[in-house]
Write a structure and sequence with these properties.
- It is built from seven helices and seven strands; from the N terminus they run αααβαβαββαβαββ.
- The protein has about 210 residues and is α/β, with parallel strands linked by helices.
- It has a single domain, classed as 3-Layer(aba) Sandwich (Rossmann fold), CATH 3.40.50.150.
- It has a seven-stranded mixed beta sheet, sandwiched between helices.
- β2, α5 and β3 form a beta-alpha-beta unit.
- The longest helix has 20 residues.
- It is globular.
Length: about 210
C-alpha cells in the first residue's frame, strides 16, 4: 500500500482503512465470480486501485460534484475515486447485476455513503453529472453516445464538463473524431512499468 500513499499522501486514517479493507472483500468475491482477472488479483492495488486514482492527478473533483462511472464492472474507477473524494457523489452503472452486487457489498463493508449503483444500461440513465469516467469499457464514440446527454451544462471546475477515460494502446483512430481531446500519459505521473502504455483521455462535452 505504501506506493499508493507515496503518490497520494493526503489520505486520512479512515480513507486508508477503507483502501486496505478492499482487497480481502474483492478477493473473496473473486472466488465466486470473475470480478477481476484472476491473474491480476495479486496486483490489485497497482492495476486497479492506483490506475483508477490516476484520474485525480489530472483533476480534483469539487465538493458536491456528480461523477458517472459507466461500465464500472467491479467498481473501477468509481470506488477508489469515491474514497479519495468523499464529498463528491459517484454514480456507478453496469448492466451485469452480479458486479453491482459486488459494489454494493464493498460500499457497505467499508462505509462508503457517496456511491449510488445502477443495474442498467448506461444509455437508460436520467442523471445530470459533471463528468463521465470510464476504464477501458468501450470506444470513445460509444461512450459519448451512451452518456453525453447526462453531462450538465453548468460548469463548476477549471476544465469544462466532459469525459475522463482511462485507455491503453494506439488511440489514433479513436481520437480522430475528437479534435479537443487531450491525452495524458500516465507514465508522467507513475514510475511503475504497468503505466508505460496507459493514458487518460479528457475531452469536453460538445
Amino acid at each position: 500500500m505504501n506506493f499508493i500513499y507515496n503518490y497520494f499522501p493526503d489520505f486520512d486514517p479512515k480513507q486508508k482503512q477503507q483502501l486496505e479493507l478492499m482487497f480481502s472483500i474483492y478477493k473473496e468475491w473473486n472466488i465466486r465470480i470473475n470480478v477481476i482477472s484472476r491473474k491480476n488479483i495479486d496486483y490489485f492495488y497497482l492495476h486497479h486501485v492506483l490506475h483508477s486514482l490516476s484520474i485525480a492527478k489530472f483533476i480534483q473533483f469539487k465538493v458536491g460534484s456528480n461523477i458517472l462511472d459507466i461500465g464500472t464492472g467491479g467498481g473501477f474507477p468509481g470506488v477508489p475515486l469515491a474514497i479519495l473524494f468523499p464529498k463528491a457523489q459517484f454514480h456507478l452503472v453496469d448492466s451485469i447485476g452480479k458486479k453491482i452486487n459486488v459494489i454494493n457489498d464493498v460500499k457497505s463493508k467499508i462505509g462508503l455513503d457517496n456511491i449510488s449503483t445502477y443495474y442498467d444500461r448506461a444509455e437508460n440513465l436520467k442523471l445530470e453529472v459533471d463528468f463521465v469516467v470510464s476504464r477501458a469499457v468501450a470506444p470513445l464514440q460509444t461512450i459519448v453516445n451512451w452518456s453525453a446527454k447526462n453531462i450538465s451544462n453548468k460548469q463548476n471546475h477549471s476544465i469544462r464538463n466532459g469525459f475522463l477515460c482511462l485507455k491503453g494502446g494506439n488511440l489514433q483512430k479513436e481520437l480522430s473524431a475528437f479534435k479537443l481531446a487531450r491525452v495524458v500519459f500516465l507514465r508522467d505521473y507513475f514510475r511503475e512499468a504497468f503505466f508505460e502504455t496507459k493514458k487518460l483521455v479528457y475531452f469536453p462535452k460538445n
